[in-house]
Amino acid sequence: MSSLFITGATGYVGKRLIALLDVTRFQHVRCLARTPGPSIPGIQWISGDLLDPPSYASSLQGCDTVLHLAAVTGKNSPATFFQVNTQGTRTLLEAARKAGVRNMLYVSSVAAAFRDQTGYHYGQSKKQAEEIVAAGGLRYIIVRPTMVFGPRAPVFEGLLKLAGAPAIPVFGNGRAAVQPVYVDDLVQFLLAILEHDFFPNQIHGAGGPSVLSIEELLIRIRSACLHQPSRIVHVPVGLLLPGLRLFEKFLLPLLPLTAGQLMSFVNDGVVEATAMRQWVPQPTGLDDMLRLSTIS
């Protein structure tokens, strides 16, 4: 019977994974968190920090697999992204290797594959973390989810705010392709990887069944969730980026979005989800995804 070490279990995907995890399949399930989560039978919370190996190194002993979900997203400084997402992954991997861990399941992001990552420190930090995992000496799989939807999903709530504006602001031409994935489908894929011991030393995508443009997605969200007709206003990205990059140095917490976050409007966010389809053969469709995402 294997043992599992999880980071990021108190995050959005992590909470759902813990809720669906069959702990009886594992000898130990240990979850690293700066603030431990609620008491759950079969879950051992480890108080610690990714960048402080002594706080968790002993808990890695006897664990076969690390499921690495922890990351910072949203509005953060470049230093924070690289410290947590990149250096945190390197530190965790080194501690896992020393403890004799065999496998790493790293949950990255489709943003790591964006062709244009100019000023997108989140995407850059995740790409660097992928490279660290691939060169780390453990059996690994890297999973790149697309936009993750679900009740109170941060990405969905951000798009819902845009869709609810008097006129929907679409940055750029609106033609960037997106492929939202429902949180439970993503979690089922992650659990199937653990169940089938699937560590092929490869990157695999996790995306939903529908591919559409970011403009079409915003229109669908407005229609399905707010029941309002849509009016679109296109905002040239080239006009916004210089100002955002300047103000981010001084007013980052006050900005409604960052220059990096605009990259989702100019890069295609789609994946090949071949392995996911093997274990999640009937993924949640977009209409159901939108309906379920508005349930609080």
What this model shows, in words?
- The protein has 296 residues and is of the alpha/beta class.
- It has one domain (3-293): Rossmann fold (3-Layer(aba) Sandwich), CATH 3.40.50.
- Helix content is 38%, strand content 18%.
- It has ten helices and 13 strands.
- It has helices spanning 12-20, 57-60, 78-98, 121-134, 154-163, 183-195, 214-226, 237-251, 274-279, 286-293; strands at residues 3-7, 28-33, 44-47, 65-68, 103-107, 139-145, 148-149, 168-171, 177-178, 181-182, 202-206, 212-213, 232-235.
- Strands 3-2-1-4-5-6-11 form a seven-stranded parallel β-sheet, with helices on both faces. Strands 7-10 form a two-stranded parallel sheet.
- α1 packs across α6, α3 (78-98) packs parallel to α4 and α5 crosses α7.
- The longest helix has 21 residues, at 78-98.
- The chain is globular.
- The model has no long low-confidence stretch (mean pLDDT 92).
Rg computed from alpha carbons, rounded to a whole number of angstroms: 19 Å
The average pLDDT is 92
Fraction in helix: 25-40%
CATH architecture: 3-Layer(aba) Sandwich
What is the H-and-E element order?
EHEEHEHEHEEHEEEHEEHEHHH
User: Any idea what the shape is?
Assistant: globular
CATH class: Alpha Beta
* Distinct helical segment count: 10
Task: Write a compact overview of the structure shown.
With 296 residues, the chain is α/β, with parallel strands linked by helices. It has helices spanning 12-20, 57-60, 78-98, 121-134, 154-163, 183-195, 214-226, 237-251, 274-279, 286-293, and strands at residues 3-7, 28-33, 44-47, 65-68, 103-107, 139-145, 148-149, 168-171, 177-178, 181-182, 202-206, 212-213, 232-235.
